[in-house]
Amino acid sequence: MATKRHVAHVTLEALTPLKVGSQSVDFLQDSPVQKDWNNLPMILGSSIAGVLRVKFQDKFKDKTDDIFGKENGSKIIISNALLLDKTAKVCETLLLEKDDFLSLFENLPLREHTAINEKGLAIDRSKFNEEVVFKGSKFKFSIELVEDDKESFNDILSLLIDDDFRLGGGSSKGFGEFEIKRIRYGYLDVSEYSSSLNFELKNVYSNKTQDLELKNVYQKQSQTGQKLTKYELNITPDNFFMFGSGFGDSDADMTPVFEQTISYDTSSISNPKVLIPASSIKGALLHRTLYHICKLEGITVDKSLEEALREAKKRKDIKDLKDLVVPLFGEAKNTDKKGKKGNILMSDCFKANDAQTKIFDHVAIDRFTGGAMDGMLFQEKTIAKDKDSYLIKISIKNEQNIGENLIKAFENALLDVTLGRLPLGGATTKGHGIFSGKVLKNGTELKESK
């Protein structure tokens, strides 16, 4: 039995909110996050191991069963990722009382969701919410390799800086993006170190102090890593827009969604920031991409939708028109379908500065008298236009396997947003949600083809 092992302590910072689901039952929300013995957010080591195994198998298939185990068991040990406190330590014992900073994590943000149909309307009884962890939260976990295999250990560490490395659920709709803040590592005898995550290993790699050996690992990964196609949607509102929160406040019945982020520099949470959820953008782009792919494939509804579907089935191996966009966007699991993960990654967009709001008053009109109906006055609060722009980052994996027409349809949908042809958010039939801007693909601006 080996008495020495490679050990690494990895510190991560959430660049977007994190969703690590649990099977807990809660009367106030549909999907609470995983929490530890101190009721603080955590990421299970099994979740991290699952992500790393899949990525390791894609790049080093021959070594996967030997390292991650099959009949003979695993040679790698991955701990749970625990939340860091304001002193950059994890809480491995039961806390009798939390300080002010850790108390901030007792009330986490809730995200409201609903499914929409082909007409852009909410599907009946499709509304649900899910709890997420603040953007800016930091976690720490350990990786141990119980074998003197330095090359495999470095290969595992190199996976952490992949552009598509995300943890938790909802990675394709904006959640789970991380940045490596620091890696401490060493090759130690089991008697020389503690299993505590607060144990300081000698060697360190961070974005400030770069150890030469791990720097070489990072450089190797940047050359051999998976190639992503990166899009940047840089847009500015033409007037007002609103991504609905699903709730009202003291000023209006309908309000835009705001969300707070956390800062370890100030040990505090921010003021509520304007949020453009990636899930909202993804839904709008999916339906517009479906329109464009049907247009490119020559599938029209000149007579009826049923006839268009029959025509599509003749040309493609599909059961429904939505299947045309599954290679890019994926599909949900239900009683009829097994579900499939898409090849698109998106990130939530937060507005850095405080936003100005505008309240609109509305009333329903009696069609017979032309007068206002009793009890039908309501208000909606929108985000007002300012000089700030919003940058929405989108990445596509395995573009070469998706299909030229589908990629073209997706790019046309992005251009529709920048040209004001595809409004985003809620209340779009009232003139809200019109944006203008530009789309970059791998740094090159896309132009509409004539």
TrEMBL record:
Identify the residues that the record assigns to the CRISPR type III-associated protein domain, covering every copy.
Answer: 11-179, 274-436
**Keywords noted in UniProt:** Antiviral defense
The biological process GO terms on file are:
defense response to virus
Keyword Cell membrane recorded:
no
Q: What is this protein called?
A: CRISPR/Cas system-associated RAMP protein Csm3, type III (SSO1426 family, dual Csm3 domains)
What PANTHER family does this protein's entry cite? CRISPR SYSTEM CMS ENDORIBONUCLEASE CSM3 (PTHR35579), DUF324 DOMAIN-CONTAINING PROTEIN (PTHR35579:SF6)
Q: Which domain of life is it from?
A: Bacteria
Annotated organism of origin: Campylobacter fetus subsp. venerealis NCTC 10354
Per the record's keyword annotation, is Transcription regulation included, yes or no?
no
